[in-house]
Design brief:
- The structure is a single chain.
- The chain is of the alpha/beta class.
- It folds into 2 domains: 196 residues, Alpha-Beta Complex (Spore Coat Polysaccharide Biosynthesis Protein SpsA, Chain A); 70 residues.
- Helix content is 52%, strand content 14%.
- The chain contains 10 helices and 8 strands.
- An 8-stranded mixed beta sheet has the order 7-5-6-4-1-2-3-8, with helices on both faces.
- It is elongated and about 95 Å long.
Length: 307
């Protein structure tokens, strides 16, 4: 299926130096071949990105829509905001740093037409991130594959049918939005195409290892019951071990007439059991916080300005 209108959604964070080149490259790739709209969401930038979006909007009022969020809400929530404004039959998401070459959009459109898939992912031959960033991303993807249950294959360079995006929009009151996981709730029709991945043109990525770790734990807490299952198994194993240890002391006391010794052993046992209880209470607290967050219906984003 060839979309009558393609909506391209780009979350923008401190990338004013790259926006004009990004638009020019998209225009050169699609002009005369595919009708498109470009939705730029400024996610709390501090470097003048919004001013650049305003300039582009004034030059190209028919193809560009600018949305400014009131603060930084994160890439996933910025995309969720963009979905609400997309008018196209198909929606493409990509990064603002030109690491996703706009010239590769044609590959996604071709795979979209030929495969009939609901979602087409652009998968990279080689990522041009730092080794530490690549390692962190690999751990995140493999972790979601094992614990969340998807195939661990995906990227932020993706093309989706409008009806799938409409389903994702319904998650606007969810405590944590992770689009790749939500997509697996609504379809099994995925296609993958190899694309290039370039070096970042300017500036520094907003994704740090720390943020990747936080994202990973948010996914595990929000999309699985794994921590609660671990608590159950840890509690069961600890109970069995404690029961066995208690039986050993009873046998030594009444049959061998040997009293248990060791103040250090008692202290270690008490501290270990206390720390284990605190750890389990922390996990339960996280789930309770997520429930509170969901019930409070705090919006995932707040819009300051629309162009």
């Amino acid at each position: 299926m060839i979309p009558a209108l393609l909506s391209i959604i780009v979350p923008v964070f401190n990338s004013s130096a790259m926006l004009e080149e990004l638009h020019t490259s998209i225009q050169n790739t699609l002009e005369g071949k595919q009708k498109f709209e470009l939705i730029l969401i400024d996610d709390g930038s501090k470097d003048g990105s919004w001013k650049k979006i305003e300039e582009l909007k004034n030059k190209f009022p028919l193809t560009i829509k600018g949305i400014r969020l009131s603060k930084n809400f994160g890439q996933q929530n910025a995309l969720l905001c963009g979905f609400s404004f997309a008018k196209g039959d198909a929606i493409l998401t990509m990064d603002d740093d030109l690491q996703h070459p706009p010239s590769e959009i044609e590959k996604l459109l071709q795979a979209f037409e030929e495969s009939g898939a609901d979602v087409v992912y652009g998968i990279y031959n080689t990522k041009k991130h730092s080794k530490i960033r690549n390692a962190g991303t690999s751990v995140l993807k493999n972790g979601t594959k094992v614990f969340v249950g998807d195939n661990g294959i995906g990227s932020s360079f993706r093309l989706m049918k409008k009806n799938i995006v409409d389903q994702i929009i319904l998650h606007k009151h969810q405590a944590h939005v992770f689009i790749d996981e939500i997509l697996h709730w609504y379809t099994e029709k995925f296609a993958y195409v190899k694309v290039e991945h370039h070096q970042r043109k300017s500036g520094k990525s907003g994704f740090t290892i720390f943020k990747l770790i936080i994202m990973y734990f948010d996914i595990v807490i929000n999309y699985t019951a794994l921590p609660l299952k671990l608590m159950t198994w840890i509690g069961l194993i600890s109970s069995l071990a404690t029961f066995g240890l208690g039986m050993r002391f009873i046998i030594r006391k009444f049959f061998l007439h040997l009293a248990p010794e060791g103040f250090t052993a008692i202290i270690v046992t008490v501290l270990f059991s206390t720390s284990l209880l605190m750890f389990c209470m922390g996990i339960i607290g996280q789930y309770l916080y997520k429930i509170y967050h969901l019930q409070s219906r705090r919006p995932p984003y707040s819009i300051d300005t629309i162009l």
